[in-house]
Amino acid sequence: MGQAAEGSTGVTATAPVAATASGTAIGAASAAGAAKVVGAATAADATTAAGEAKVADAVTVSATTVAGAATTASAATSESAATATGAAGPVLGVDFGTSNSAAGYLVEGQPRLIEMAPGEVTLPSTFFFDFESRETLLGEPANQALLNGDEGRFMRALKRVLGTPLMHEKRQLLNRQVTFVEIIGGFLAEIKARAERETGLRFDAVLSGRPVVFHGVDDPREAQAEADLRACYEAAGFAQVQFMAEPEAAAIASGALERAGETGLIVDIGGGTSDFSVFRTGETGVEILANHGVRIGGTDFDRSLSIDHVMPLLGRGSQLRKVLGDETTPMPQQIFNDLATWEKIPFLYTPSNRRAVQDMQRLACAPDRLARLLAVLEDELGHDLAFAVERGKIAANAGAGDARIDLGILERGLDAGLPPEALAQSLAPHGQALHRGVTETLALAGRRADEIERVIYVGGSSLMNVVPQVMRALMPGADHVYRDVFTAVTDGLAIAAGR
Which GO terms describe its molecular function (predicted)? Predict the structure, then answer.
């Protein structure tokens, strides 16, 4: 999913070439595909089940490799995808997502997704560094280790760290000094290994999805974010790395199923970003008219709900007494904002933060609330709270009038009510931003809203009611359909990589 600043311009292009925000030109040939897969896939290896998510120190990547990769500060090249993925061997399409990831390749003209775990073609983009076993768990086992209360460090939503200084800072994990380039590289290396085990093929080249914009076209972090992602793939062992805008990949996958001559809009709402592509189908493939994106996704929905409904129970919005006199001052907000932000949670468990909260508790007008905040830091419960918010969000979105965010892990019987109207109120600003993003995309494509004949929703967060509500209000005459919500981007990448 693309991660853009609100209101930032993504791309504009005249047909038949669509340019990504970073300048990668992808011509009509790329919409039809990239390199040819050589060799038929073998039957899935019986050892695939052994790839079932318990990975012994999957982040072990040589420091030399990572150092070399991390200095690759190249902006996107102007090579066409057809040229760039013209490798001698098969090309793996990979969608590294904020919340979930998937991979696939082309077999006899059809995309085939890699089984990431028995019966599953998606892998949660989560990590658990087990302090007792010294292992790194990925995906669902990582989630389960957190829920089991195992001793270790949990991480999620690392895609949102791309382009920031945090990517190259070393941190101590399992008695090793590692960077996020190594951590993400280890995750991508495991995806590569599982694909090779299942297919019997060797994938030295990858066509990766990328947001239309990571941070914003004029943001200095934009080029660095793609360079960071490239470094992660190189650390994972890929010799050739190319990128395609994620909604463009979804358009390729969906366009094959649409009527020729139809104008459509891809609405791709993922965990970290929202991307849009206006496309037109033709007899020879899909023509991308414009790509655009805004930096809003499911984790932002979670953050707003947490700030509005959970953080007040931990002291947000309360007052501190001044040391002298009877006056009060507002509680500092930063620690609450960070605790509500998935990718910032792992960095909160520091002695200095605990001391700061203890100091605030002594002066708090509501010390019982600060006691809960201190318990979160001492017991490292930030991700448990985030998952509780996510579960409450899903229940409220389904229309449950009695939906609640269960905070019993902090205090027996503690919860935050989340009826559908409260959900809608908290997410309303995000709906307004999505509306702006789509209208900007239509302007880039030179199309009016009433010219869109079909709106196609992909990405897990497109299932949130606020998304189709905004789109239907803007384009009431279009057909609105959900299609392969969790895998459309991967399907398109596999098609583009394999032709």
Answer: ATP binding; ATP-dependent protein folding chaperone
DSSP string, 418-478: --HHHHHHHHHHHHHHHHHHHHHHHHHHT--GGG--EEEEESGGGGSTHHHHHHHHH-TTS
408 has pLDDT over 80: yes
Rounded Cα distance between 7 and 402, Å, is 36
Of the candidates 186, 115, 225, 213, the residue with the CA atom closest to the CA atom of residue 487: 115
Give just the sign of the alpha carbon dihedral 53, 56, 59, 64.
negative
Rg (CA), the chain: 23
**Which residues are 321's β-sheet partners?**
328
Among 9-13, 107-111, 337-341, the minimum mean pLDDT is found in 9-13
CA nearest to 20, candidates 94, 76, 89, 59: 76
Contact 491, 484 (CB under 8 A): yes
The C-alpha angle 282, 288, 291, rounded to 5 degrees, equals 160
Measure the CA–CA gap between 163 and 80, rounded to whole angstroms.
24
If you average pLDDT over residues 250-277, what whole number do you get? 88
Beta strands in 145-245 (DSSP E): 152-156, 171-173, 176-178, 205-210, 240-245
215-232 pLDDT, tens per residue?
A: 877 788 988 999 999 999
Q: Tell me how far the alpha carbon of residue 63 is from its chain's centroid.
A: 26
Among 383, 372, 379, 381, smallest CA distance to 411 is for 372
Chain segment 271-293, per-residue pLDDT in tens: 999 999 999 988 778 899 999 99
Is the Cβ–Cβ distance between 102 and 125 less than 8 Å? Answer: no
* DSSP for residue 26: E
Tokens of 187: 């995750």
Look-up: residue for tokens 């290896």?
45
Instruction: List the helix and strand counts (H, then E) for the chain.
Output: 15, 23
Nearest to residue 396, comparing CAs of 304, 313, 474, 317?
A: 304
DSSP symbol at 310:
I
Q: How much is the pLDDT for 125?
A: 97
Burial class (CB in 10 A: 0-12, 13-18, 19+), 65: middle
Q: What share of the chain is helix, strand, coil (3-state, %, to 5)?
A: 40, 20, 35
Measured distance CA(488)–CA(61) in Å, rounded: 30
